[in-house]
Design a protein that fits this description.
There is one protein chain. The protein has a single domain (4-68), classed as lambda repressor-like DNA-binding domains (434 Repressor (Amino-terminal Domain), Orthogonal Bundle). 17% of the residues are buried. The protein is 51% helix and 0% strand. It contains five helices and no strands. By secondary structure, the protein is mostly helical. This is Helix-turn-helix domain-containing protein. InterPro entries: Cro/C1-type_HTH (IPR001387), Lambda_DNA-bd_dom_sf (IPR010982).
Length: 78
């Protein structure tokens, strides 16, 4: 699986692979392999990426086109 969206989101923030790799506590080479789809991203790393980019894992892996992080939506419950 190629993770085009994680590259696009990184580039949108003008970040280098090295910067995201440091945040994720992986090497730049590993992060590069994630973006190219040469290495599967562990669920914990996907969750950290979703949190960092304020989106969902479903968006990152292409299951939805909605970037909205539903955990940040305000609840109307009283």
């Amino acid at each position: 699986m190629r993770y085009k969206r994680i590259r696009d989101l990184r580039e949108d923030k003008d970040l280098k692979q090295r910067e995201l790799a440091e945040y994720l506590n992986v090497s730049q080479k590993t992060y590069s392999r994630y973006e190219r789809g040469e290495r599967t991203i562990d669920p914990e790393i996907l969750a950290k990426l979703a949190t960092f980019h304020e989106t969902t894992v479903d968006y990152l892996i292409g299951r939805t086109d909605d970037k909205t992080d539903y955990t940040k939506k305000k609840s109307n419950k009283r």
